[in-house]
């Protein structure tokens, strides 16, 4: 039996090409959606991982800040304790110094000299007072220079003044306290000849 195709030949080809186009378009759209989904999933995973790392870093930074603050506080406490220790050691070393100074001044003060003021700054002391004459001021300075605990007596000024209707010399002078040096360890004294002050060696 003979079969006759009544549809135009071109129309069938056009219809076949149209079906292929839509098929390819559907496949391309599905492929694009699949690629987008996979890419989005991977990127979301990276973002979540980075956010977790950022949270961990922030928590670590907070902990480190706390530790740094604690270390700073401990350092300040250590410095304060060290300062107190130095002050206490200084007080223990020089606690009898004031008494020694007054005793020394009392023993070295010549007759006719009267003190009116004493001011200490470190090892430097300023004396102010009155003397019956300039010679007595010179005598006081010689006594201070000869003292084993005092040294470098320097006259600041001396001027005429009137005290109780009497003509006197008003003076101001400085001198330095000779503080004892740190004793040498026993081991360093071996081999040295001992010297006894005020007696025979």
From TrEMBL:
Residues 57-91 form a coiled coil. The keyword Transmembrane applies. It comes from the Bacteria. Keywords: Coiled coil, Membrane, Transmembrane, Transmembrane helix. Pfam families: PilN (PF05137). Signal peptide: none annotated. PANTHER family: DNA UTILIZATION PROTEIN HOFN (PTHR40278), TYPE IV PILUS INNER MEMBRANE COMPONENT PILN (PTHR40278:SF2). This is Pilus assembly protein PilN.
């Amino acid at each position: 039996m003979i079969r006759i195709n009544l549809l135009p030949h071109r129309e069938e080809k056009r219809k076949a090409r149209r079906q292929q186009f839509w098929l390819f378009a559907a496949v391309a759209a599905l492929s694009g959606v699949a690629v987008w989904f996979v890419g989005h999933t991977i990127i979301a995973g990276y973002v979540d991982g980075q956010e977790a790392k950022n949270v961990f870093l922030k928590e670590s930074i907070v902990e480190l800040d706390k530790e740094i603050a604690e270390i700073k506080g401990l350092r300040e406490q250590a410095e304060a304790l060290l300062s107190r220790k130095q002050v206490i050691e200084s007080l223990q070393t020089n606690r009898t110094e004031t008494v020694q100074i007054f005793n020394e001044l009392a023993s070295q003060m010549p007759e006719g000299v009267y003190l009116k003021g004493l001011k200490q700054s470190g090892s430097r002391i300023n004396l102010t007072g009155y003397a019956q004459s300039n010679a007595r001021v010179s005598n006081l300075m010689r006594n201070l220079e000869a003292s084993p605990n005092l040294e470098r007596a320097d006259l600041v000024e001396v001027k005429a003044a009137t005290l109780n209707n009497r003509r006197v010399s008003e003076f101001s002078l400085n001198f330095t306290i000779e503080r004892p040096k740190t004793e040498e360890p026993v081991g360093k004294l071996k081999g040295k000849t001992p010297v006894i002050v005020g007696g025979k060696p």
